[in-house]
Amino acid sequence: MNVNIVLSLVAVVVLGALAFLGGSAPALQGVFGILIPYIAFVMFLGGFIWRIMKWAKSPVPFRIPTTCGQQKSLSWIKHDKIENPTTGIGVVIRMALEILTFRSLFRNTKAKIIGDRISYELELWLWLFALVFHYSFLAVLVRHMRFFLEPVPVCITFLEAVDGFFQIGLPIVLMSGVLLFAAVAFLFLRRIATPTLRYASLAADYFPLFLIMTIAGTGMYMRYFLRVDVVAVKELTMGLATLHPSIPANIDPFLFVHLFLVCVLFVYFPFSKLMHAGGIFFSPTRNMANNSRIKRHINPWNPDLPFVTYEKYENAFREKMIEAGIPVEKES
Amino acid sequence: MDIKPEEMIKIHNPIPKKSWMDTPPDLSEGKFCYPAKAKTMEYLGIPNARDWSPADEDWKLPENWQQIIHEGFKDRLDKYRSLKVFMDICVRCGACADKCHFFIGSGDPKNMPFLRAELLRSIYRNDFTALGKLLGKIGGARKITPTVIKEWFSYFYQCTECRRCSVFCPYGIDTAEVTMMGRELLSLLGININWISDPVANCSKTGNHLGIQPQNFKEIVEFFCEDIEEISGIKINPSFNRKGAEILFVTPSGDAFADPGTYTFMGYLMLFEHIGLDYTLSTYASEGGNFGLFTSSDQMKKLNAKMYHEAERLGVKYILGGECGHMWRVVNQYMGTMNGPANFLEVPKNPITGTVFENSASTKMVHIAEFTADLIKHNKLKLDPSRNDHLNVTWHDSCNPARAMGILDEPRYVLKSVCNNFHEMPVNTIREQTFCCGSGAGLNTEEIMEQRLRGGLPRANAVKYVHEKYGVNSLACMCAIDRAALPPLMDYWVPGVDVTGLHELVGNALVMDGEKERTLNLRLEDLPGAEGDSDER
What we know:
Chain A is mainly alpha-helical and 332 residues long. Chain A contains 12 helices and 2 strands. Chain B folds into 2 domains: 171 residues, Orthogonal Bundle (Fumarate Reductase Iron-sulfur Protein, Chain B, domain 2), CATH 1.10.1060; 310 residues, no CATH class.
């Protein structure tokens, strides 16, 4: 068994067990229900900003967009303004497509060698499940705002209504949670089922998958099976949100597992690959216009370097140049 | 090549049982590029000049090599946001894996772009991140060892900086950036390859990669003119280093040196003569290509500086650039930044059509395909595409013009104007998804022929497809490295397909004022249908 998988799984199980034990001991509920969530929230915000600042500190010396379409050139040649933008608006649209629709993943192909031929088939499962994963995660996150806002805004109620559109079961099954779990499961299975991908995967690839899987799992377990006391939960979360934290009675220890793992995710986020969420905005191959021939891009550390000047060149070859009838600056 | 094509395409590379961190690179003979010679390194001021071989156990690294790498890495993280971001945000989704021609052709997992980048990332985590320091191997970090250096050398010279992976990466992570940084770090330890360093040194000394001295450069061009006279009856007298010319023309020296690039050079000369262009060639700035790009940004800047320097000295209005791949990455993405502003030049204007090239308003350098497309669109050229009727052509988009510029439709327009038979390769292998020739970024060297043939397999296979389906027998391109690398690639994988430059086809189709009836093409072969045609084609 792959050590990276085992260790990641063990880490999540241990963290979950820790929270369960802590949540079961009234003396520690304050730590898991109040102290740690506050610390996690501060570390997430602080860490996120710290990482962004760290990136921003390094300059972008060269304009290096990856051009994925026809450049702007002659007036009668159709310029691909989005895949090869020359203006800020083009870049914004390109970035929006990348961030909102995962444009580049939508190109994904699978190369296969059959006999003497290589074929490239469109392979959109990764794109689809990545999209499902991120959007259902977003829906779940937004839905959870109902625990931190009173009265609950109409938009959240509406989102829930859409989320429970199929009206299956009671309480009504919200699709986002199920889809989130399914998408994470797919991403995990894909990772272990592809030998090359498994070979190159790190613990840092499995840990967040197990973490999110467990968060989604405990959430659904509490909603559909345990049917925890939602009023008590909201009392806790509103206390946190209004900075008057308290631990209500009747909180199920499972809630502490769920909450603690969310805290772990928050703390882990800025220091891990999950920062691709912020990093995509900083990717020079995507966020730059291909206009360096139109407008000079400035490199703040552009070094002054000695090169072989024409004078030095002529000094080395003057006689040969004169003999060959090539004009020179100095005749001797 | 000992291995037959039908064997080589059976990619068999079982995944090692051990972690990739514990799998050393294969540096047996034939698996590595020869290192730079001590005297070349000394001339270029590269540290730790010595004679050594990658096959040696001891690479004679400087005493404080770990410190050099650590500080060099830190320096580059502070200078390049791209490096910092790309080190941090990869999620290893693997979308890039089978987009790399070297991975497709070799099956070696370390040729998957994201794993290639991990070779560097693992050291980054160890040296610069808290989590990496804390967790070590479990955190994806490892300490640098001589074996890691060898691994870097092996795999950063199995990447042609073609950027195809970055098209597919959801965050645009560009392995070319990673490879460039990796190569720069290696260079700090005196680890360079001969096939890159020699051209860089030559280019500094003589003005071009091939070390052609001024008088020889002139002789070569005059020799082309003799051939042109034989073919067309027209005598051309191009000027060299002429002050006051309107345009300086710069092309890769490969075009002056080796077939079939030479025919492309003849095509340029015929075109310029025909339209009466006021231009000059320079023996000093006689290199459009820039092998500095494959070494370090400093070397790139130094070689590139000569173009503006010469343009200013000669007092030309702007620069026209020939067919070359990486040259155009440098011109489009680096030149203005590194060596501009070129305020002594004017915004390029086609003197024949009056078209102003607004897209090069700052850098003031126009691509010959843009220039020629404009001429054809304005009906300034009389063309007889039937002279290329014996050719059934497909178009190879070179990596850099495609993915670092986006010059896709201009050459196609020119191509379709000068030949009647044109077929595109499959859609996943052209335009921004084009495949590398397998020999770019300084890897066009004989000793790694198997690697080159494997890397070129996806490109060759797409050519084979149109060769079998449409009878394509000519692979056109606008890159000097392509013109050198594709012929052996075609001979191996798709015999019967020739390689040609765009302006060779232009030169053939061009009906020049006052020319005699042509019976020969630029290769001095009989034209189809002309007298003496042996009908064997």
